Amino acid sequence: MHVEEGKTREAAEMSILLDALPKKHPADPSGLQLAQLITSISNRKVPVSSFSRMWNLGSLQAKVTLGYFAYWLRSRFSDADEKERLRKEAHVAAALKLFGTMGYLRGAVMKVGQLLANLPEVVPEEFAEVLSALHFEAPPMHFAMVREVFLDEFGREPEEVFAFFEKKAFAAASLGQVHRARLHTGEEVAVKIQYPGIARTIKADLRNLRLLLQPLGLTSDGQNMLENLADLEQMLLMETDYEQEACFAREARRLFTAVDQVVVPQVYDDFCTKRVLTMEYLDGCHLDEFLAADPSQEDRDYFTTLMTIAVYRIYYRLHWFPADPHPGNFIFMKDGRLGLIDFGCSRTISDDEWRLMCDLELAVSKQDEPAIKRLLAQACLFENPEEIEPDRLETVRRGVDWQLEPNQAEGLFDFGDREFFRRGVECFMNLSRKRYTRGSPLYLWTNRLTIGGRAVIYRLKGRCDFRAIHRQESSVWFGREGNRHLTD
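Now predict its structure.
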């Protein structure tokens, strides 16, 4: 009885959501219909049970499939121009369906949507445009839920905790939303508030994913993938601990001075808990708004340089990296500085992992083939190169070469080069297609950092002297330690 009631309730909720989607004409992704879609689900609590979340995804798959089938039928009797119009209309409708469901489910499902939005050369352009709103324009929760979180965390309402608190969120993403506020001492702050029950949604999504992937456990690669899901779940759950994120932000902030033109906002500890994070407000805009102003190539190169310095300084000085590089995490500030605002998904690198990565980087730079093969085999969890299939070794090698290619280039490296970006994405798609996924859990995050970060600067169409930046930031490690480790 409860199962049937659950199905009826979820179907009704999905029907309300789908009614908000465009029926005849593609809409501007930033226009009225998208705004109505966001409003239609902002008052609804995030579903947390495995069943309800799986039911929503199953319903989404059916709706998207029917939409494309309708496009196929209509296009059979159309000329070339009409087919193109219908194709774009089908893409927009499907993207809005994805946006609606992912925005409603939030959590790990929504992070998949953010990943798709970062791949404009892989998914249809209409998908990338609509889903890009998931980075910071996702449906916010109603203010009554915000008040509930504050009462649980502080025992007081937002208006009591702060001298001023803006009820309308100015940004919302997969795990929480952000409001502007002002402390009683006068500082302007950004307050990130976690959606209620979001940790439970992550556990539910990973439980569903394990069930779907269970048949793969019959192979060694599949078994390794299932084992790595534990690391994925741990990392995603770590993102729900805002006190941990505050610690990462404080460490990163200490790395940069005014000369660097990179700023990590100050954390205000007295106004932080596990579900509320209060940081200095940075005045600026996100990538879409920056690009809409048609910046010069000089400005694009300038911010590409700052992004590269920021990521590699954190990587080489702290031995961890921000593993969620998407447009919503960068602020293009009016005074020319670059703001880094999200450290929830920050992966710490163990000593063994660090040594392996640096040794491989050194081996590739020296073109030491025996060392490269030995280290790639080790990274894929084989005892020696003789155990690894030649095609697997070659496929993994192409991906590593692509990641390290900018290190070898003198002068400006063009990250806006379409062929370079597509080649990298193809490398990682081949690894997945051939199921060459066996490896340390770390590589889930290195791949996410590399593809995600390069997707951002690909959209920026930026260039930088990557080799010089890499040499400068890595000198702390390679200057003192690198050569010794390679010959150990």
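The chain has three domains: 2-132, 139-172+175-281, 284-488.
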